[in-house]
Specification:
Strand content of chain A: 5-15%
CATH superfamily of the largest domain in chain A: NagB/RpiA/CoA transferase-like
Oligomer: heterodimer
Strand order of the largest sheet of chain A: 1-10-7-4-2-3
Number of domains of chain A: 2
Largest sheet of chain B: 6 strands, parallel
Strand order of the largest sheet of chain B: 1-12-7-4-2-3
Number of domains of chain B: 1
Radius of gyration of chain A: 26 Å
Strand content of chain B: 15-25%
Distance between the termini of chain A: 72 Å
CATH class of chain B: Alpha Beta
Order of helices and strands of chain B: HHHEHEEHEEEEEHEEEE
């Protein structure tokens, strides 16, 4: 089975290894630059982009503000339409519910639509433990699954692979999972897509159980929406007899009309298209068309903890378009695996530490996986101020303080490894509130500047390993200001 | 306590410290975005639909009502189709000029049987010009969702200008949420290899759209 993210090293270590992989950097650079310019063009086509972005933000904020009400409304409307609603407080519970539903059908295999929520909870591994084989049917997810790999992008989980690598994986692995790759398979994208079509066809046609996520759930009507390109989603949503959808509780929108905003902003932000090839909507079950049984599993798994943070909760507006990944200079160089989560890139850096907490090394390091350049905020179609949340989370990691974990209020201790940072900040506070000491110190620093090292010793070494120390001026600014009477006598 | 109560309780506690807000939904969201982009006459809107369909590699044909059976027969012949799935409510005259074997859209048909059919002909519920999208809502002249999915060749008839709207907001307003909808913008495609678009994965690899009527 595909690898998992358990026990990942902190971001700086993982990124350090990734940036030395020339193939990876080349693949990422090519893909992110291709999509960047296409997205800009797709967005420029609609003159009211700013208004759509603002409306999307407000719809999501309003929904989150009244999430309890909309969840209850959604449950009622899905049930009225013939669906069954299940509630899962965490990943284990969601996995247990899904495995139970599959086993009850008597089936031992399922076909899956690409879904971030099921990746997040490790559903495939949980099903495997129950003797159920889950087939990923999205092309990129298939590449990841066959390659026993981990996803590295929200939209294109195999973005770290180039066409040659994909060819090799297909030629080597497809026979293990079903129909082998055609003989003489080349690395042209059209041939690779054809190989995936042939390989998955037999699985779609015999599938009795489909598993999906959803991009949106409409509270007033009970409608679920899946946005996709290949048609694998349609296969999984319409051919099986049983459909199980695992969806995060933040995916709700109040009304049918709200879709008019997101069905314009999501395709243009994600694949840079006016519209993605296929969008499916379904409301419960329909007689003699599609699955006879529909189960909706509503997933919390850290979302309510995120909701409890007034600054951090904006991350729950995310519609998983991945535009922020594609513009991020850090993502482009480090790649998705370094983020140690199914949610990589800027959104991952604020989502993972909130969904999972900041107790692990990787989660505590993620808020620092950014240069705070702000490109992510600029492209976000629901205006998530990612830099603001990053700084907020850095504060929480370095200083500790109140947070919510599994619904309980806790007080976090300051993280280890930030002792030098905290000491430096305390020293700075003392110096700035003692003008005499500051003056003496500045003069001393100015006079000894020829002897300053170029890197910091001791705990400061890590900081100066990738940065130049700022040069100290010969004369402190305050002295210069007094001597020249505010610059009037300046030579 | 069951998980439903646990989650709803967590949500309420998470929001408890945020000031009370009873702004009604319709005032909470300012909808200052456009109902459609640009100003176009009816003929221009149909033209835009044709352009955007073609831009995403759908094959676009135009004819009047009298010419429709001939166009459909020609497309099936050109494709070399031996069989075609027909939704129960499809206008019979549309297939009057072809003798290709008809396969009824029936609940008992297995996906494997459907996989052996060459083509499918349907009408649509609405078409959206700005995005080059046709929407099927499972109506009698469109059939079950799977018949436009499994066969590799889909011929979709759009009545112009009646079924054409400009924009996504206008399209949604015409559609019924309780029906299972399929929005189609070009043939099946993927961007999964190096983020570049390639046509032709699991859905029909050939999508032909006939715009029938005069504007």
């Amino acid at each position: 089975m595909s690898g998992t993210f358990v026990g990942m090293p902190a971001f700086p270590k993982a990124a350090h290894e990734a940036v030395h992989d020339a193939t990876l950097r080349g693949n990422l650079r090519h893909a992110t630059h291709t999509i960047r310019s296409k997205r800009a063009k797709a967005v420029a086509e609609v003159s009211d982009w700013a208004a759509l972005r603002e409306a999307g933000k407000r719809i999501k904020d309003h929904t989150l503000r009244h999430l309890d009400r909309y969840l209850v409304q959604l449950e009622e409307s899905v049930t009225a339409a013939g669906g069954t609603v299940h509630w899962a407080a965490d990943a284990d519970e969601a996995n247990r519910i899904v495995a139970g539903l599959v086993l009850a059908t008597g089936e031992s295999e399922v076909v899956k639509v690409k879904s971030m929520a099921t990746q997040e909870i490790g559903l495939n591994e949980a099903l495997e433990a129950e003797g159920i084989r889950a087939y990923e049917t999205d092309l990129a997810e298939l590449i990841v699954q066959l390659g026993k790999d981990r996803p590295s992008h929200i939209l294109v989980p195999a973005i770290h692979r180039n066409r040659g690598e994909i060819r090799d994986i297909f030629a080597r692995e497809m026979s293990e999972w079903g129909r082998p790759a055609p003989d003489g398979l080349t690395d042209t994208p059209a041939e690779l897509a054809e190989a995936a079509r042939l390989h998955l066809r037999e699985k779609f046609l015999r599938a009795k159980v489909g598993i999906s996520g959803a991009n949106f759930m409409v509270a007033e009507t009970g409608t679920l929406v899946v946005v996709e390109s290949e048609g694998n989603g349609r296969m999984c949503l319409t051919l099986p007899e049983t459909l199980i959808s695992v969806v995060g509780i933040e995916k709700i929108v109040p009304t049918w009309q709200d879709l008019e905003v997101f069905l314009q902003t999501l395709p243009r932000s994600s694949t840079a298209e006016r519209m993605n090839p296929y969008t499916s909507t379904w409301t419960g079950t329909t007689d003699e068309d599609g699955p006879r049984a529909f189960h909706l599993v509503l997933l919390d798994n850290g979302r309510t903890d995120t909701l409890a943070d007034e600054v951090g909760r904006q991350a729950l507006r995310c519609i998983r378009c991945s535009a922020c990944l594609n513009v991020c200079p850090v993502y482009e160089r480090a790649g998705g695996h370094a983020y140690g989560s199914v949610y990589p890139g800027p959104i991952g850096a604020i989502l993972s530490p909130q969904l999972r907490g900041t107790a692990s090394e990787i989660d505590a390091s993620l808020p620092y996986a950014s240069s705070l350049c702000g490109a992510c905020y600029e492209v976000c179609p629901v205006a998530i101020d990612i830099p603001e949340v990053l700084v907020h989370l850095r504060e929480r990691v370095a200083q500790g303080g109140p947070a919510t974990r599994e619904g309980n209020k806790v007080v976090l201790k300051p993280a280890k490894g930030h002792a030098a940072e905290r000491a430096a900040m305390r020293a700075a506070r003392w110096a700035f509130s003692h003008p005499g000491a500051l003056r003496t110190g500045q003069r001393l620093a100015g006079r000894t500047r020829r002897f300053h090292p170029r890197t910091l010793p001791g705990p400061g070494r890590a900081w100066s390993a990738s940065r130049d120390l700022p040069p100290v001026p010969a004369e402190p600014f305050r002295d210069w200001w007094q001597r020249t009477r505010g610059g009037k006598d300046a030579k | 306590m069951n998980s439903r109560d646990v989650i709803l309780g967590r949500v309420r506690r998470a929001l408890a410290e945020t000031g009370h807000d009873d702004t009604p939904y319709d005032q909470a969201v300012e909808r200052s975005y456009l109902r459609e982009h640009g100003e176009r006459g009816v003929a221009e809107t149909v033209e835009l639909l044709a352009e955007n369909l073609a831009d995403y590699r759908a094959l676009v044909h135009r004819c009047d009502a009298d010419g429709l059976p001939g166009v459909i027969a020609g497309l099936l012949a050109e494709r070399g189709s031996a069989s075609v799935v027909v939704p129960p409510g499809l206008d019979e005259s549309w297939l009057a000029d072809t003798d290709v074997t008809r396969v009824a859209d029936r609940a008992e048909t297995t996906p494997h049987e459907l996989d052996r059919v060459d083509s499918v002909v349907t009408a649509c519920a609405v078409a959206i010009a700005e995005t080059g999208t046709i929407v099927l809502d499972g109506g009698p002249d469109q059939g079950r969702r799977r018949i436009t999915l499994v066969p590799d060749h889909h011929i979709c008839v759009v009545r112009v200008p009646d079924q054409v709207v400009s924009s996504v907001p206008q399209g949604l307003a015409r559609l019924a949420p309780e029906r299972p909808l399929t929005w189609i913008s070009g043939p099946s495609a993927t961007s999964d290899i190096e983020l570049d678009r390639v046509e032709g994965v699991h859905g029909p690899r050939t999508l032909e759209v006939i715009l029938v009527g005069t504007v």
